């Protein structure tokens, strides 16, 4: 993008509890300084979107189909 390569970071929280998705999102934003989050499942997208919104980071879910996945932020895409 504009002559710069994208770097993809994966944070696999290996949990069924959604708190792991929130913690992973916070780490990616605060430690890795990402500009976008790509949660994969509807449930993850729902809990990651408010974190992204609060930090003014784009959240785009590629695999989520639930109608609530994009309701938390105008910067969330479904």
Provide an overview of this structure.
The chain is of the alpha/beta class and 78 residues long. Helix content is 32%, strand content 9%. It contains two helices and three strands; from the N terminus they run αβαββ. It has helices at 19-30, 42-54, and strands spanning 36-37, 58-60, 76-77. The protein has a three-stranded parallel sheet with strand order 1-2-3, with helices on one face. Strand 1 (36-37), helix 2 (42-54) and strand 2 (58-60) form a beta-alpha-beta unit. The longest helix has 13 residues, at 42-54. The relative contact order is 0.18. The model has no long low-confidence stretch (mean pLDDT 81).
The percent range for strand residues is 5-15%
Q: In what order do the strands lie side by side in the largest sheet?
A: 1-2-3
Low-confidence stretches: none
Assign a percent range to the helix content: 25-40%
DSSP summary, beta strand count:
3
Which helices and strands appear, and what pairs or packs with what?
Elements: H1 19-30, E1 36-37, H2 42-54, E2 58-60, E3 76-77
Parallel strand pairs: 1-2, 2-3
Helix pairs in contact: 1-2
Brief synopsis:
It contains two helices and three strands. The protein has helices spanning 19-30, 42-54; strands spanning 36-37, 58-60, 76-77. It has a three-stranded parallel beta sheet with strand order 1-2-3, with helices on one face.
């Amino acid at each position: 993008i504009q002559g710069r390569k994208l770097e993809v970071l994966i944070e696999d929280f290996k949990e069924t509890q959604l708190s792991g998705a929130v913690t992973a999102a916070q780490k990616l934003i605060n430690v890795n300084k990402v500009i976008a989050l790509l949660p994969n499942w509807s449930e993850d997208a729902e809990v990651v979107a408010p974190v992204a919104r609060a930090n003014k980071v784009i959240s785009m879910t590629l695999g989520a189909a639930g109608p609530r996945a994009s309701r938390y932020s105008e910067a969330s895409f479904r």
